Amino acid sequence: MNKIYQKLSIGLIVLAIFGLLNLQCSANKNDHGFDLNGMDKTANPTQDFYQYAVGNWVKNNPIPDEYSYWGSFSILAENNYKVLKEILESSASDTLAKKGSNIQKIGDFYASGMDSVKIEKLGFQPIEKQLKSIASIKSKSDLINAIAWGHKLGGSPVFNIYAAIDAKNSTAHIATLSQSGLGLPDRDYYTKKAKNSVETRKKYIEHITKIFKLLGYAEVASEKNAATIMSIETRLAKASMTRVERRDPHKTYNKMSLSEIKTLAPNLELDYYFEQLGFGTPTNFNVEQPEFFKEVNKMIKQVPISDWKVYLTWNFINRYAIYLSSNFDEANFEFFGKYLQGSKIQSARWKRVMRTINNYLGEALGQLYVEKTFPPDAKERAAKIVDNLKSAMKNRIENLEWMSDTTKSQALHKLSSFGVKIGYPDKWKDYSNLEIDRKSYIGNVIIGRIFSFKRNMEKLGKPIDKTEWGMTPQTVNAYYSPTRNEIVFPAAILQLPFFNQNADDAINYGAMGAVIGHEITHGFDDEGRKFDADGNLKDWWTKEDGERFDKRAQKIFDQFDSYFPIDSLHINGKLTAGENIADLGGLTVAYRAFKNTDQFKNNEMVNGFTPSQRFFFGWAQVWENNMRDQALRLRIQTDPHSPGKYRVLGPLSNMPEFWDAFGVKPGDNMRMTNDKLVKIW
Ligand SMILES: [Zn+2]
Fold this sequence. Notes:
Layout: E1 2-3, H1 11-16, H2 49-60, E2 69-71, H3 72-93, H4 102-114, H5 116-122, H6 128-135, H7 140-153, E3 159-166, E4 169-179, H8 188-191, H9 195-214, H10 219-238, H11 243-246, E5 255-257, H12 258-264, H13 270-277, E6 284-287, H14 290-302, H15 305-320, H16 326-341, H17 349-360, H18 362-373, H19 378-398, H20 405-416, E7 419-423, H21 441-457, E8 479-481, E9 486-490, H22 505-522, H23 543-561, H24 577-594, H25 598-601, H26 611-622, E10 625-627, H27 629-638, H28 644-652, H29 656-662
Parallel strand pairs: 1-8, 4-6, 7-9
Antiparallel strand pairs: 2-10, 3-4, 5-6, 8-9
Helix pairs in contact: 3-4, 3-18, 4-17, 6-15, 7-13, 7-15, 9-10, 9-16, 10-15, 17-18, 19-20, 19-22, 19-24, 22-24, 22-26, 24-28, 26-28
The site of zinc ion has 7 residues, from strand 1, helix 22 and helix 24.
């Protein structure tokens, strides 16, 4: 589950996995929503609850070759793909679809992407024009122009720009400038000295070399280009904030006027840059990383134009390689899919094209998807659980022993101001100005990208659209937005194993209930607590309560720092803190809500398990998964979410409710010692 600022591109989340509906995976679950066969009854729940609850599932569900991760989310996604494929295929074969309709656009986009014969024949010809334009850069102004153009096309060369909700004035948008420009997944990949990191850089250089050779460069020139790119990217990386630093919304909030930013980075020639971008010049900016822009300012002057050309060529080709002929596409997969994530083979072409369409026509596809899959009463059912969870959270806040009444009343005000979105948007995104045809796949991608960039930039100066969603309905996920102070649950997550009307209450509350509680708690985690009821970055805590919170949060940093999922790589307690706090808070609140159900009150046994025991099974089942070592390493370094296994072991070992349910005693693995015990919400 994610917490996203609206300023973040949703791409990250959509890419993560989207999925489901018409769930067929109930086949391996019993009627009550829990898969008894997935348990490993030889394991001891007091020592390793994850193994006990889902150990056999983990053993019996190896990762398919095309994936680097396999778990309940991916199974839902696969089911979902079948529904989406039907929509795509029927749209593509509907030659009578009205020109300009969503069906025509979806169908044409799909047909263009599936025409691999044409794509193969064209090689990199569809982007030759862009490559030539980079090659023709002669002056610094040309360079600025090319960067602006690169921003429109989505490669975020050198830095990034977008419109976001102003964190200190949540009724307005602000032009946001942020660090970017790297080809590897994180700035740390360029700086770490560990053997693994050194090897990754070597492989990355080899990969860049290979791509330049495919573009027709000689071996020596390609190697030289790779070294140039590495040197520019390393400089950008060293000036970049770490992911942990970027979690502090105060650090990344640096409001500046145009003249202030021009003084900070005169070489960016912002007047000219915005003229080239073509959306007018914004008056106010949030410069997320001023130090980064100081360095960029120096680099614009110091790095020779010839080197920038090489860098921009790479930035562009790296962004678009997956849409080109198979030699580019496969080389890209070899490095980013196989080497960095451990996948063995590429997904089928239709799945890759589907993901692309999901990025550029997400809500058009979503609208058709919802019509097919989302039952009208599902929204109501989910809304009821959300209400129950909000009441449970209210009760928790009122009874917190460590918080003063002053802060409590503020927290309750924030909770009562939460917006809730369920299923799908009331108002769908309008794609009428997006022209898609069957002529060129990459042409459609470029048009789609420019369209979404424009839609985002045109928000500047306009009021916030309250109906807007940051995820498509076909995404198996959920989020909290601190600047909107709202929780959002797309249609695709309101299904088994998260939620099902036939599942027993225990499973529904342990899974979907805890997910809802998780998103609610994001409003009060170490980052979310810094935003007020109106979505503004504003301190509403008394000094003492803030300190008490920090002390408690420190314990969860320490707890997760002590988990080593692979080799000597431990979870980054500070990077994952928000998610870990949300998991613990979400489960605690969901358990409280579950206690109000008749099933709990009557202590109904199912399959020999108590309601409380089944509640915790529900949570474990959500996180059952297998992950390749490479993907695990990548995620530990970049993902604010802890690996699934630790999302079970971590929070449960802090919960007396869990100890009681399974008879966990002091000294058992699943029980934190009193001095380390985390209790926040
Ligand atoms: Zn989350």
